[in-house]
Specification:
One of its GO terms (biological process) is mitochondrial respiratory chain complex II assembly. The protein contains four helices and no strands.
């Protein structure tokens, strides 16, 4: 079985959007890249956790909204983003999980 056959079209769309999001920090000024990476990873993970895997309509909606957001973030004039304390706490928890496992 090939890699592509294991995932549905919807899953592939989500992966492609996430991949697109992960490329954004590389286009931003070096001092802000870590913030961009954190903000994008956090947003994807929280959105993914908020929707059941079989809620196709909700996932399609989030894909459309996410694509529009990424279009704004990809604009060269957008240089920085805001990171909340909740995002920083989430990042710390993720690192601790990786170290602990």
């Amino acid at each position: 079985m090939s890699y592509n056959a294991r995932h549905s079209g919807l899953q592939k769309e989500v992966f492609n959007l996430y991949r697109r999001a992960l490329r954004i920090p590389r286009t931003k000024p070096p001092p802000t890249r870590a913030k961009w990476g954190l903000m994008l990873r956090y947003t994807f993970r929280k959105q993914a956790a908020s929707v059941p895997p079989r809620a196709v309509a909700a996932i399609e909606h989030l894909l459309r909204v996410g694509a529009r957001q990424l279009s704004v973030y990809e604009d060269r004039s957008v240089k920085d983003c805001w990171v909340s304390a909740e995002m920083r706490e989430w990042e710390t928890e993720q690192r601790q999980r990786r170290i602990g496992s």
